[in-house]
Amino acid sequence: MLALSNIIKSFQNGEETVTAINNVSLTIQENEFVAIMGSSGSGKSTLMNVLGCLDTPNSGIYMLNNEDVAAMSDDALSKIRNKHIGFIFQTFHLLPKLDAFENVKLPLRYSDIDENEADKRANVLIDRVGLSHRKHHKPFEMSGGQRQRVAIARALINQPSVILADEPTGNLDSKTSNEIMELLTELHEQGQTIVMVTHEDEIAEYAQRVVHMKDGVIISE
């Protein structure tokens, strides 16, 4: 489903060129659950941004569902993100003025799904993550775990090929973290492909495969 070949991504830092990803190749199959681990500066977040089409590599090939997305325009990448990728972030990224139901529906504003279908999908997903009783509450009225559940429902609303989760338990206590990881495990068991960045060994244990990065390269799997 996802295939990176010889990906290089560098940034200019003043006069210095910093190579965040150095000739990385990685394949992720449909319905895999993969964790990417590494210390700060290892390149794992940059790799996640490339996988999510939020950043384009300087060189290399990135095939997503048999499409080469590495050299696509920003507009084309935006369409790919909306169609194929669901994002879950450490800080939830919910809009504070919208309630849970409206936050979950938000990505469908940029699709051709009609309002009735959007409402139906949002209701199904809010129920799926166990928040039917909180669907008209705004983010500030919910706990961190509930906000992350809303974010997971939002990530699923477009029926994406892959979910990219960037430190999904980073702002949660251990009990809530385990609840969120059990929910992600359940989604994986139902067929969802998941790629997760984490620095916590106990969280990575939920994945089928763990990829370790250091200094911009994959050092082990």
UniProtKB/TrEMBL annotation:
UniProt keyword terms in alphabetical order: ATP-binding, Nucleotide-binding, Transport
Family matches, as CDD domains: ABC_MJ0796_LolCDE_FtsE
InterPro entries given in the database record: AAA+_ATPase, ABC_transporter-like_ATP-bd, ABC_transporter-like_CS, ABC_transpr_LolD-like, MacB-like_ATP-bd, P-loop_NTPase
Coiled coil segments of this chain: none
GO cellular component, one term: plasma membrane
SMART domains: AAA
Pfam families (alphabetical): ABC_tran
Gene Ontology MF terms: ATP binding; ATP hydrolysis activity; transmembrane transporter activity
Domain ABC transporter residue range list: 2-221
Gene3D superfamilies: P-loop containing nucleotide triphosphate hydrolases
Family as reported in the entry's similarity comment: Belongs to the ABC transporter superfamily. Macrolide exporter (TC 3.A.1.122) family.
Identification of the protein by name: Macrolide ABC transporter ATP-binding protein
